[in-house]
Specification:
Strand order of the largest sheet: 2-1-3-4
Radius of gyration: 13 Å
Strand content: 25-35%
Number of strands: 4
Structural class: mainly beta
Helix content: 10-25%
Number of helices: 1
């Protein structure tokens, strides 16, 4: 894998709650390290769960690419 890209990631548990993540964009290139930092109230684990697909994403936000191919 040369590159992983997340485009416009928005997720929340349901429509009545605040967003866990809202319009997040990033690219990780081969041999690079990315850190998710923040205090315990930032909900870093929920952000990772959204990326892994265990939390529903908002409509039209599922834009994940590996080597520029949609997954």
């Amino acid at each position: 894998i040369d590159q992983i890209t997340v485009d416009n990631l928005s997720a929340r548990y349901n429509k009545n709650q605040n967003f866990i993540s809202n319009n997040i964009n990033f690219t990780i290139n081969n041999c690079k390290i990315m850190a998710i930092m923040g205090d315990h109230e930032v909900r870093k684990i929920y952000f990772l769960k959204a990326i892994l697909g265990t939390i529903p994403l908002e409509e039209n936000c599922e834009k994940f690419f590996i080597n520029n191919k949609t997954i």
